[in-house]
Amino acid sequence: MKTITLVCVVMCLTFGMASSHYYYGKGMMSVLSKQAEALYQGLAMVSSEDGGHHDHGYHGHRHRIAFTAVTSSTTTYSSGTTIRFTTVKANYGHAYNNGNYRFTAPSNGLYVFSWSIATHTSYKGHTKLVKNGSTYHQARCSSGYQQCGATVTIILHKHDQVWLESDYSSIYVYATYSSFSGWKLN
Asked: Measured on CA atoms in the order 134, 140, 146, 150, is the torsion positive or negative?
């Protein structure tokens, strides 16, 4: 559990430091604190449900749902265009489809999605997480070479779909530096 907690804290610091001044008026520590608390609560649920027994190996991976995909080419996306995360690094449970760039929930439950977009200096990096065609969460990134994104929890029902779209007139996404991940908590 300590290793997972450390990873979550590092993720919070990475995302928070990259995008903290875009939370208009909220301090970086406030944002980091909220992100860390959300991750801590998710980890607490997982550890209480498995009775404290942690399977950090590959045993049972067929029953786990988790994916990470990255962009394979540097591309400019117009508003409302699905961002193409074509290179799949992991896809336990085969719920991420790199043909339509969507995650389809194989079962009801609480899920976490995290994304990070690397942008070019003359473009904004506004993105949105879409659930079944409706905006669930947005991330804003001003012009400049930046890495920005978000991590969110969401209740999904079997067959619900989640994906990322551009949320600005034109965004520039660097290849291999931009990623989209998701996993089921329970």
From this structure: negative
Tokens found for residue 16? 């928070």
Q: Please, are residues 93 and 106 in contact by the beta-carbon 8 Å criterion? A: yes
Length of the chain as a residue count:
186
SS3 44: helix
Cα–Cα distance between 153 and 163 in angstroms, integer? Answer: 14
Task: Judge contact between 169 and 79, C-beta under 8 A.
Answer: yes
State pLDDT tens for residues 130-159.
999 999 999 887 766 678 889 999 999 999
Beta bridge partners of residue 112, listed in sequence order: 153, 183
pTM more than 0.85: no
Side chain identity at residue 78, one-letter code: S
| Residue 14: its H or E element | helix 2-19
Measure the CA–CA gap between 62 and 27, rounded to whole angstroms. Answer: 41
CA angle 41, 68, 176 (to 5 degrees): 125
What confidence tens digit (pLDDT) does each residue in 13-24 have?
Answer: 444 444 444 444
Hey, what amino acid is at 148? C
The DSSP secondary structure of 9-72, one letter per residue, reads HHHHHHHHHHHGGGSTT--HHHHHHHHHHHHHHHHHHHHHHTTT----SSTTGGG--EEEEE-S
